Amino acid sequence: MSAVATETSTNEPKVSSGYEPRTKSAPPKVFGIDPRLIMPLLITIILLVGQLFYGILESYVMTLTAIGSAIAVELLLSRFLTGKFSFPASAYISGISVGILTRSPFLWPFALCAAISIASKYVLRLGGRHIWNPSNFGICMMLLLAPYAFSTLSIQWGNNLYAMVIIWTLGSIIIYRLKRFHIIATYVPLFVLSAAIVTYWHGNSFLTNVSPITGPMYQLFIFFMITDPMTTVRKSKWAQSFVVFLIVAAETIFRINENIHAPYYALFIVGPIANVVEVAWDRRRGGE
Predict the structure, then answer these.
(1) Does this model's pTM top 0.85?
(2) Calpha distance 40→32 (Å, rounded)
(3) What is the CA radius of gyration of the chain?
């Protein structure tokens, strides 16, 4: 799946370094569709189903602003840094993720969050790869820099059964075909365990603590952030699953402390550390 279009998988800027990921042949088409289009189609379905059942968008104009900003910055930076325009599928995914997840009465946070997300791919790099999931990075930066004007789709959870069945069934099939299902299969039961721990700690309802996983925010987090192949460790499925365990552990701590942005901050902290450790390990082994 390393060549599949996710938030970060198309025409990355080339940076000279001591670490270069192994090249792989292009993956075959999935259901007869160009693999670069699979994830954009999935996130579009989540958008349409989520808007129909949940009304998840702040507004269509704001979402289009985020998408337009992401694509514009992607094309500009790819042209400037690589000499060619990148295929905008990853920018579309980042933009639409920001459009769905952002909450603000203003238009500029949508544009700025999307721009920061894409810029992070080109600026914050180590060992020839970027180490933060773009939209996760953009959202966390906005939460830290502009909390007065920016929030996220977090406590506004919905759990309509029909929408959940559509999104989870289609998403799971696609992720399985793209060889990332083990990450979801690790995260979901660990999240349930985390909900039980939070319930025990606070003495409130287990259903209240576990129900967010059925809503659109966690669906985006699961299908597009923690499964992003360009910002997850590359060693093995076991290594990827262990990182997921660490993410859930960090998320549990945030949730115990009643932080409504727990999954974003957990991935923001754990994901890059895991990537840095892997790059350092590969460099050390390469020097032996």
Answers:
(1) no
(2) 15
(3) 18
Q: Is the pLDDT of residue 219 over 60?
A: yes
Q: DSSP per residue over the chain, as a string?
A: -TTS-STT-SSPPP---S--PPP-PPPPPBTTB-HHHHHHHHHHHHHHHHHHHT---S-HHHHHHHHHHHHHHHHHHHHHHHSSPPPTHHHHHHHHHHHHHEE-SSSHHHHHHHHHHHHHHHHSEETTEE-S-HHHHHHHHHHHH-TTT-EESSS-----HHHHHHHHHHHHHHHHHTT-HHHHHHHHHHHHHHHHHHHHHHT--HHHHHGGGGSHHHHHIIIIITT-TTSS--S-HHHHHHHHHHHHHHHHHHHHTT-TTHHHHHHHHHHHHHHHHHHHHHHHHHT-
Tell me how far apart the alpha carbons of residues 237 and 128 are, in angstroms, rounded to a whole number: 21
pLDDT, position 132: 94
Residue positions counted in the chain: 288
- Distance CA(169)–CA(178), nearest Å, equals 14
Average pLDDT, the chain: 83
170-218 confidence digits (pLDDT tens): 778 878 877 889 999 999 999 999 999 999 999 899 998 998 888 778 8
Higher pLDDT, 50 or 114: 114
Phi/psi for 204 (5° steps) reads: -105, -160
Burial of 113 (0-12, 13-18, 19+ CB in 10 A): buried
Neighbours of 157 (CB within 10 A): 16
pLDDT tens figures, 100-153: 899 999 999 999 999 999 999 999 988 888 899 999 999 999 999 999 999 987
